[in-house]
Write a structure and sequence with these properties.
Largest sheet of chain A: 7 strands, mixed
Radius of gyration of chain B: 22 Å
Number of helices of chain A: 14
Helix content of chain A: 40-55%
Shape of chain B: globular
CATH class of the largest domain in chain B: Alpha Beta
Strand order of the largest sheet of chain B: 2-3-1-4-5-6-7
Largest interface: A-B, 32 and 28 residues
CATH topology of the largest domain in chain A: Rossmann fold
Distance between the termini of chain B: 21 Å
Number of strands of chain A: 16
Structural class of chain B: alpha/beta
Oligomer: heterodimer
Number of strands of chain B: 11
Strand content of chain A: 15-25%
Strand order of the largest sheet of chain A: 9-11-10-13-14-15-16
Order of helices and strands of chain A: HEHEHEHEHHEHEHEEHHEEHEEHEHEHEE
Order of helices and strands of chain B: HEHEEEEHEHHHHEHEHEEHHE
Number of helices of chain B: 11
Radius of gyration of chain A: 22 Å
CATH topology of the largest domain in chain B: Pyruvate-ferredoxin Oxidoreductase, domain 3
CATH architecture of the largest domain in chain B: 3-Layer(aba) Sandwich
Chain lengths: 438, 323
């Protein structure tokens, strides 16, 4: 029984999008290399998209500069009258604002950035958003510890993992270029009619948000035509203006609730098909790798693998030759990008030849860790049991030193030889075990 | 080109990174100096550079740290700089909280101080190339404030030889303009930069070991320990005082009249006292190093002027501001 049309009622031309597009003032006319921090890299796409006329937010460390940069550029008149920055009274209000804006026009991108308890404060609305079908919503999460006893403003992704079941497409980034490129691509994923799921790019607070370095910025014309092309090539075409089934707060009986969840799960899983297509188009356009489900380093011949995410992976990449040399073992590295939907099948395939895996996690968890559980599920689904060491390090944004990476590699190699992990989990710092026997 | 600059260039040519670590006090301009240096390096096509801070929820005056890593090709390593090739001390008060030279043996040290390289090398046990510059004095002269960041930037540019002074000057100007400072302040900073290029003093010293302290764990941290950590010098969220000044309590003649005004006024509760049957609340000191943010409430409240605000480090007698 079909009770409504695919997208509900449509109100074509209620908003003059061509006028909005025409009013856009390009920020970059040509490919430009600049030196910026991660927050700025995350803000620039919102200045470049004609589809992002209003940016809403509330400041919280370490994401504040995202909002400050947008406000400074818009306030200086560099965007003409085509853009506005709305400072709202709290994060909950910012999330509500996204609902109103995104729901009123699905052609536009409604975005904000937040962090830690700021994301927590959005929870009620974010959980509704995740199921709403509003794929044009983007919440940039600048990861910061959210178990705030005691308070710590440095970056760990416990906030991101606390919200992994909110229904968003979560993609983790490391480095300014990956942050910028990922944000450029994600609307093409979220707004795809097969997906229609809001997106949450994430990057670590301080370690990435406040780390400055080179960034290649693409011209506005190319940025916008890439998104236009990515959306135009979808079938069916995305829903248009003022969509009829984006009302929030409606109450249904359980029978219908379950029915909606069928669609929500299917849309989220469809992202695993859509991401590679968008990434392929991005690479063709800009010559850089698009969003990968995960990055792989030295995995071609690896006999053990470390699986991790975030900026500390860079140290692991740099340490791989030394790990291999000292341990006389072929150590490989997988850096996760797409967290939800979890790329179970692809990950199990990438790990099919290794004898043990070490899962490196930065977020507090009661047991073996969020990633360890997802990975175990992925391996079980593939019919394989793989000895897995669970590591915690960098909690609260603590430094993850080269010696810590080498120790994790050593323990993973030992795990492969023994055929089982040495502990339920390890908590390491400066190469030393912190956790009591478990 | 100095031999140190030549050694750094050779290090880059070998494919190694040059790692810089700086210590200073929040509000003292350490971040601006390192960011301006990094932005200038980023203009060099063959170099990749990353710079990032380490700070917490501390306010102005807390000890902060800045890192910079530069290399030919991509800088992948993201961990903290633990064995710096270049160690910067922006504020000598920060050296009371941390060994700014930890992990070095034969490095380039840039120290904002009135002292000579010889005195700085002796005070901090430095081996290698020691560069000192009287940044606070230059800041007072050009900016009317003891702000040394521009002087330290100039010293870094001159002694590392990694970037041309004109490029660093442009980078500094860009950073200052971006912060929307009035033009006259921007010009004063640029004039200070130009002068500072010629103001540093350089000394060479035999290598001296500053081995890294091994990590020995955190000890027991029950949930209640965070209250104690709040005022601990080991936790970087303390050290809240304004840079360049400190408060001292001195009562050698035991003049305290027990009025307790300072105890009542101190917002941090760090005044130390004993109950005295004759005089009441007899003050004998305060935990300045832990949590004093130099609000001056005690200085103002004390009817006997037993609290005084002082310059944080002592300048050697007769040392000229300019060479």
């Amino acid at each position: 029984m079909q009770i409504v049309g695919t997208y509900g009622a449509r109100y074509e031309n209620a908003i003059d999008l061509s006028a909005l597009r025409g009013a856009h003032q390009p920020q970059y006319a040509a490919r430009t290399e600049i030196a910026v921090d991660g927050n700025t890299a995350a803000a620039i796409p919102f200045l470049q998209w004609w589809r992002a006329p209003i940016m809403a937010g509330f400041p919280i460390t370490p994401s504040t500069k995202w909002l400050e940069h947008l406000a400074a550029v818009v306030g200086a008149g560099k965007c003409g009258k085509a853009k506005r920055v709305k400072l709202l009274e709290a994060e909950h209000a910012a999330a509500d604002y996204l609902v109103g804006m995104a729901g009123s026009c699905r052609e536009l991108i409604a975005g904000t950035a937040t962090s830690s308890v700021g994301l927590d404060h959005m929870t009620e609305t974010v959980r509704s958003l995740g199921a709403s079908g509003l794929g044009n919503v983007m919440i940039v999460n600048v990861c910061r510890a959210t178990a705030n006893y005691p308070l710590c403003i440095e970056g760990d992704p416990s906030d991101h993992f606390a919200h992994r079941d909110d229904g968003f497409i979560q993609v983790m980034c490391r480095g300014k270029q990956q942050i910028y490129d990922t944000i450029l691509q994600l609307p093409a994923v979220g707004m795809n009619p097969r997906v229609l799921t809001p997106t949450m790019p994430g990057f670590f607070g301080i370690k990435d948000s406040h780390r400055s370095g080179k960034l290649v910025v693409e011209p506005d014309e190319a940025v916008n035509s890439f998104l236009d092309e990515a959306l135009a090539s979808t079938e069916p075409t995305p829903p248009g203006l003022l969509d009829g089934d984006t009302s929030m707060g409606s109450c249904v009986t359980s029978a219908y609730f379950q029915g909606f969840k069928v669609g929500q799960k299917a849309r989220l899983q469809a992202a695993l098909d859509v991401i590679p297509r968008v990434a392929g188009l991005f690479e063709k356009r800009f010559g850089r790798r698009g969003i990968e489900l995960f990055e792989q380093f030295a995995m071609e011949d690896a006999e053990v693998a470390l699986v991790c995410l975030g900026p500390d992976a860079g140290t692991a990449v740099q340490q791989l030759p030394r790990m291999r040399d000292e341990l006389k073992a072929r150590v490989g590295l997988i850096v996760l990008r797409v967290l939800t939907p979890f790329p179970s099948v692809a990950l199990a395939r990438a790990l099919r030849k290794v004898n043990a895996v070490g899962v490196v996690q930065h977020a507090y968890h009661h047991g073996r860790g969020h990633i360890a559980l997802d990975l175990a599920d992925a391996l079980a689904e593939s019919g394989r049991l793989l000895p897995t060491e669970s590591f915690f390090c960098g909690l609260g944004g603590a430094d993850v030193s080269p010696s810590t990476w080498r120790e994790m590699a050593r323990l993973t190699v030992s795990c492969a030889m023994r055929g089982k992990p040495s502990r339920r989990w390890h908590l390491l710092h400066e190469g030393h075990e912190l956790s009591e026997e478990n | 080109m100095t031999s140190r600059a030549q050694a750094l260039k050779e290090r880059l040519a070998r494919g190694d990174s040059i790692d810089l670590r700086g210590y200073g006090k929040a509000g003292g301009g350490l971040m601006l100096a390192v960011q301006a240096f990094a932005a200038a390096l980023a203009k060099v096509p063959e170099l990749d550079v990353q710079d990032w801070p380490l700070f917490s929820s501390a306010r102005k005056g807390a000890t902060v740290c800045a890192y910079l890593r530069v290399a030919r090709g991509k800088v992948e390593q993201s961990s903290a700089v633990s064995e710096p090739d270049v160690a910067v001390l922006m504020n000598e008060a920060a050296a009371e909280d941390a060994d700014f030279a930890e992990g070095t043996k034969d490095a380039l040290y840039v120290v904002n101080t009135w002292h000579s390289p010889e005195m700085a090398a002796g005070r901090y046990r430095l081996g290698g190339t020691v560069v000192t510059i009287a940044g606070d004095d230059l800041g007072r002269k050009y900016l009317n404030r003891p702000l040394a960041n521009v002087a330290v930037l100039a010293a870094l540019v001159r002694t590392t030889g990694l970037v041309e002074p004109v490029a660093a000057r442009a980078s500094l100007e860009s950073r200052l303009v971006k912060r929307r400072l009035p033009r006259r302040i921007v010009d004063a900073n640029l004039a200070m930069f130009d002068t500072s290029l010629e103001q540093m003093r350089v000394g060479q010293f035999p290598p001296a070991g500053h081995p890294r302290k091994p990590f020995t764990g955190y000890g027991r941290l029950p949930a209640g320990a965070q209250s104690a950590l709040r005022t601990s010098v080991h936790n970087r969220t303390s050290g809240y005082g304004r840079p360049g000044v400190k408060v001292e309590f001195a009562d050698p003649l035991s003049k305290c009249n027990g009025c307790s005004l300072c105890v009542v006024q101190c917002p941090e509760g760090i005044i130390q006292f004993d109950a005295d049957p004759a005089r009441g609340t007899l003050v004998h000191g305060a935990r300045f190093a832990d949590f004093c943010k130099v609000c001056r409430e005690c200085v103002t409240a004390c009817p006997l002027d037993l609290f005084k605000e002082l310059v944080a480090s002592t300048r050697p007698e007769g040392h000229p501001v300019e060479a």
